[in-house]
Fold:
Amino acid sequence: MDAASSASWKSSKSAFFVSLSVFLFVAIGACLPIKAQTASFHNAPATAEQTKNPYAGKHAAAQAGANLFARHCASCHGPSGGGTGNIPALAKGPTQSAADGAIFWFITQGDPNNGMPSWSSLQEQQRWQIITYLKALGGTNPPLPKAKIGAAPASSSADTAAPPNAPFTDYRLENPGTVRKITVQDLPQPFATKSANNGPKVMARPNDAWPKTLPGFSVQQYASGLNNPRLIVTAPNGDFFVAESEPGDVKVFRGIIGDAKPQQVETFAMGLKRPYGIAFYPPGPDPQWVYIGTVGAVVRFPYQNGDLKARGPQQHIVDVPDGGGHWTRSVQFTADGKKMLVAVGSGSNVDDPDTTPGEKNRADILEFDPDGSEMSVYAYGIRNAGGGIAFNPATGELWCSVNERDGLGDNLVPDYITHVQKGGFYGWPWWYMGGNQDPRHVGKHPELKDKVITPDVLLQPHNASLEIAFYEGKQFPAEYKGDIFASEHGSWNKSSRAGYEVIRVPLHQTGHASGEYEDFVTGFVLPNGNVWGRPVGITVAPDGSLLVTDDGSNSIWRVVYTGK
Ligand code: HEC
Structure:
């Protein structure tokens, strides 16, 4: 304990600050030995690493830092530094093991090409205060300083922004039934508009706000009060498995009764490291295992139809690359049960895998035997398909939903949904949408230019496309059969919000996409630009209704067809 924190320990009268000091001491003490071993943070120079934080461990500074964080950082990094969408967590991960001086150096410069602004506009004292707060966040021992109510700015509202140029759009024009199609010819030049800083501050759902859908359909609330519900999947017996990624749980929801509510809810497994992907093995009606994609490994639990709790301990199957950045690991088995596919997103926005060892086997869909052996790369240059891969039951083809890169302006690069060619290259990070070179990698890999596959369906850039489901239900009209429904979590790197909706990708009973997609469920953004809901997971229930998880309002929505 240094002199400063021991003084604050003695003089503190309130239990709140006593526990904060102890906890800051522990958090800071704990990271000292790590500092020496970790490679430098964002290539911070050694002199920066050695610069001491003059406010380290001081609770007044942490309190001031909490308010500054709420104002300047929370919109992108989440209200408690847990990260949002593609933006890294600060309450855990590399920031927690980095030296304060290295963080100071990094936030002063920012990384504007990758969407992180420079904060040289804040006073030095304020930057150190934020870092003091960040280090307090990393501990395991709340209470933390809370931002003063009202310190955060109102969510930036785009209702005064110029109307979007078709085929690009934003939340103001998203409307169930509107069909959209973006082609490569529509794309602007890189940096045609500046890289936006427009993450949502998610608010409670106002009483009169509800998801909107097409006439003939209606939206019900199936469950609420969840904790960060992410991927959802329907088990062979009709139960719904839901990953609650932040607390590390997998829950089971059984049945849809009465007022569209579950008959039973149980916790299947706990204590997982950011679980996301869930797949039953072997494929078919009688699985023996539930596989779960966690941030650094695929694990599995023994399972029999009807189990509501894991019937045995977790088994480790295989490690998958970790080390920050995109953390969702979507998992699927081929229909013959011979192969397991795992989507692993990039660690960064556009770092070059040639010179960034941490990007090895990332931005890929990896293939394994179901026991985790025999890894190979199934398809590559796919920035982040971790949000959703799925097999098209009609054609047997693998499809994926992809978050493309940031920092090139409002209308670049489109997210996409596409069938995946085995061995196919989809461009990241050197190329995008066919032979368009990323301006941050000029001159690199000319031999790949002609290999870049243009995806089937280009979506609004930055809308953060996550889970996809093929509609094989009987409830919706026949024209929907075989179509894809997808959850679009919503943008931060666009000056007027896009996404925050469920879309339908019509496959026109052919099993193949035409490039079109249609707004299907909207209304998660209020007219003033404030956000209350963010779709993540999607699955078709046995009765043919659609269930959609929402980690903005922490609920599950159900879309039913009610007739003409
Ligand atoms: C407009 C969105 C945005 C805002 C606002 C923002 N950041 Fe970031 N930040 C990012 C992105 C995107 C990255 C990842 C950049 C990269 O890949 O190099 C990042 C990265 C970081 C990192 C490195 C994390 C890591 O694991 O490597 C730190 C530290 C950080 N930000 C701190 C802050 C602080 C402190 C603030 C507020 C003063 C802030 N950021 C505000 C978008 C933002």
The longest helix spans residues 15-37. Residues 1-38, 148-158 have pLDDT under 50 and may be disordered.
